[in-house]
Amino acid sequence: MGGTFDPIHHGHLVAASEVASQFHLDEVVFVPTGQPWQKSHKLVSPAEDRYLMTVIATASNPQFSVSRIDIDRGGKTYTIDTLRDLRAEHRDADLFFITGADALSQILTWHDAAELVSLAHFIGVTRPGHVLADPGLPAGAVSLVEVPALAISSTDCRARVAQGDPVWYLVPDGVVRYIDKKQLYRNDR
Ligand code: ATP
Ligand code: MG
Q1: What range(s) does the Cytidyltransferase-like domain occupy (predicted)?
Q2: Regarding predicted confidence, which is higher, 126 or 54?
Q3: Which domains does the chain have, with CATH numbers?
Q4: Looking at the CA of 153, which ligand is closest?
Q5: Is any atom of ligand 1 closer than 6 Å to the C-beta of 153?
Q6: How are strands ordered across the β-sheet holding 64-66?
């Protein structure tokens, strides 16, 4: 599951859990982006903070793990590199790339869709109220899943912290404490 995870929240975790169940996945690997090219115009928290929050949020679930591949590669993150590296690490696995339906249509528009869909099956998850856009791809290459998750976004979580509003129960407890400890999102961005 790819994402910025700035911060990771319960929407991401419910989405991962739901897709793992529906698609009978053995494991969900959360892959925080390096420098997200779609978001390079905005300030994004340091990769190390986003990585650690993702580890904290997923640590108690034996089915969840976190990969540093996009962070350690350096430079901007392109999904094609993520998938090539994951494929090299997991030769015999069936790979499923999970991301938001919004991000999915961008990824498949900007990159070589034929190579992407040869590397993984794509699953676009959407939160309540977001329309399931058809990315216009070969049938069978992409699945869209509406996750019965909460209407939580990282943007809202950051805004709440900046305003001094609580994010308890929107993000895992350890992530609330990490945000506080590192004083993340304090300044209006
Ligand atoms: P931001 O508000 O900064 O864009 P985000 O909440 O969308 O953050 P990302 O890190 O961009 O979080 O999330 C990775 C993917 O997970 C995105 O493509 C997004 O659409 C999807 N996602 C985010 N929140 C939810 C949710 N509540 N339910 C289902 N999918 C979600
Ligand atoms: Mg987003």
Answers
A1: 1-160
A2: 54
A3: 2-182 (3.40.50.620)
A4: 1
A5: yes
A6: 2-3, 28-32, 64-66
ipTM for the predicted complex: 0.91
State the pLDDT at residue 113. 81
**Given its phi and psi angles, is residue 106 left (phi above 0), alpha (psi -120 to 50 degrees) or beta?**
alpha
- Unique residue bearing structure tokens 């339906």: 101
Local structure of 154: helix, strand or coil? helix
Determine the distance separating the centroid of ligand 2 and the alpha carbon of 133, expressed in angstroms.
15
Which span out of 3-12, 75-84, 146-155 was modeled with the highest average pLDDT? 3-12
Q: What is the mean pLDDT of residues 30-48?
A: 79
Closest residue by Cα to residue 144 from 123, 169, 128 = 123
Q: Which residues contact 149 (CB under 8 A, 6 or more apart)?
A: 10, 11, 14, 15, 18, 127, 128
Tell me which ligand sits closest to the C-alpha of residue 147. Answer: 1
The tens digit of pLDDT for each residue in 124-174 reads 998 766 665 555 666 677 888 888 766 899 999 999 999 999 999 999 999
* Centroid of ligand 2 to alpha carbon of 87 (angstroms): 25
Which atom from ligand 1 is nearest to the alpha carbon of 15?
29
Atom of ligand 1 nearest to the CA of 149: 28
Give 74's pLDDT tier (boundaries 50, 70, 90): confident
Q: State the ligand closest to the CA atom of 54.
A: 1
